[in-house]
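Q: Two folds, back to back.
A: First:
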Amino acid sequence: MTAAHQFRVKVYVAMNTVFDDRELDQAVNLAWQLYGIGIDALIIQDMGLLECDLPPIPLHASTQVNNRTPPKVAFLEKVGFQQVVLARELSLAEIREIRATTSVSLEFFVHGALCVSYSGQCYISEVMAGRSANRGECAQFCRHRYTLRDDHGTVLARDRYLLSLKDLDLSASLSDLIAAGIDSFKIEGRLKDQNYVKNVTAYYRRALDEIIDRDEGLTRASSGSCSFSFVPDPARSFSRGHTDYFLQKKRNRPGAIDSPKSLGMELGRVIVAERQYFTLATGETVGNGDGLCFFDLAGNLTGMKVNRVAAGRIYPKDAVIPPPGTTVYRNADTAFARLLAASELCRTLALQLDLREAVDGLLLHIIDEDGVTSETRLKVEKETARQPGSAALQAARQLKKSGGTIFAVEGVTADLGAEAFFPAAAYNELRRRALAHHEGVRLSSYPRQHVELQVSDVPWPETEVSYLDNIANRKAEDFYRRHGVREIDSATLRAEMVAGCALMTTRYCIKAQLGICPKEKKRSGGEPVMPLTLSDNTGDYNLEFDCRRCGMIVRKSIKRI
């Protein structure tokens, strides 16, 4: 917390799960504990929390709340949310529409793994495996291998990862998102390691800094400047391939249907393949210990570890040799990983120092880039200079040494008498005390936001609720009743979900992914006979298509193929 707040970085805690009646009190107690240690906001999903005694802390509506329409976002703003995390599936036009009718802060995912279902609207894991995605227990059915058949039993795709998506990458659209009204960006990082976080956040930090430097109307949300000992490149970290999803257009092919695993960076094609080695047409340097992969002739992803590289020849550890013409990827870059692991603190705060003589020694005044000021005194006896006028230069030289701290001294002014002399040890001690004191002053002046939740009876934008609203406790029932919904029974809603719900509701469309969308060019073999069915080792699933709005629903089949 201290490390973040020194740079005016806000810390949010995700409590974006649904609670049963027994858990709500524990959740509220946790919220108060988090408030006590200084977090800046809670990201929540369960509306029952708004009926509880929460601390005066800003609330953010998680993307799990299914925030994709102007009426929904406007409602969340009116009931007290300070920020809303929008659905990843939205287009720029849809974001603009939401921005035009609301003033609440909007956040949007720009990078990382994608759920194929609208967030908060996926029930396949709970219904089929007893593990609720809305309670953080997703069994990742979207990463399963499926076979797709039409109603005549014709196989349209066999043993492919038909619900698996590429990773989101909107780095090329940051300016468009800012113009559309997005206030902050979000990077998905669940189960990612430290090197991934370093690499991807550095990449977006650089991209945003370039945009901000070009636009005087934009400011950074936090303080300090960053420098890196490596060149950020998301393709060198975990990557299933990248997509901009539906931001720029509704119909595209964002699926990673050949493998749900990390491919990493494409290196190039195999030129020569011998029994123990192969060569690549690539501009990249392959190193010992790198992890490489390729799709074999059967379409399976095959991995290898590089044992050694000599004269452009790559010798795999297990002599797994891809045939000529095969595209090879690198999903573990050992040299880059070492660079990331060795990188340390990259952010510093700019300071201006003003040194003056005091009656009993020295007085150092500090002002930082945020305008925060502090003063530190040091009692020290003044001596007579052997070289008159040299004190100011010596002071500046010693006071600029800020290594090992979060500060970078950009300028020093010193008003010392021409005959004055102070030992270097005095300047060093003054600098050490002053920088430590200024850290404390910055922390004590951190502008924390306190928000008291105001009870309201703003009408819920729908006339009724369903299992899709994830009502799991009596407090949530009370919330929706207070906002105009009359018929609510969470037990009945749960039974409805288990009996015959939409297991997944998606904007992603398998027909579009496979090139058999009727809105696109018809294939030579004609249209498949509806309905289509997905099958894996857990069962059969019927697909329903909303072609007018480009969407798809996955339901459990009542018959086994």
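A: Second:
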Amino acid sequence: MFVGHYSVAFAAKSEKNKIPLWVLFIAVQFLDYIWATLVLLGIEKLRVIKGFTAGSMLDSYFHPYSHSLIAAVVWSCVGAFVYKTVCSRVRYPCIRSAALIVGLAVFSHWILDLVAHPRDLAIYDNTLKVGFGLWNYRNPEFALEIALLGIGMVFYLAQNIMPTIRKGAVITFGVALTIVQIGDTYVPRNRENRESAAN
């Protein structure tokens, strides 16, 4: 799952909660930021395997600290706590449920990954791995990503008052994300098998 994650950010943003859209963008990809950092540090493990799935060649076979269910819950709580603390420190207007929304946005990453990933998402540590495996079906997975993005953007445009030029910018950004997803899904890559340099 890639651009589908952004659907949650778009749908969660409203005039009422006043959460900046960029904060929600970070929240929905926060687990992947943690994952990328830990892979670079050699703590979590990744290998590129030819034909691993139809939609991805990445076999993230050890990522319990960023993508296990327990870790996702912990990082979601961290995200909510940090947002609430920062808003309090800088006196940014923050409704009572805003921190909860940010935390749920972080956790949504794991839920959507559960749909797309093969059985590589651990419940705890590196055990009891789950995943529905939609990455094994390239066209349906692509369709779901774009459908989620479209639905999220519809919610965003309906819930937020903005000038026409900003609406156009949002739609343009959505088109750009769609193009990126097309490239990620359908453009051929170098298919040599290799371990992550951090391994």
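Q: And?
A: Residues 64 and 126 are 5 Å apart (CA to CA).
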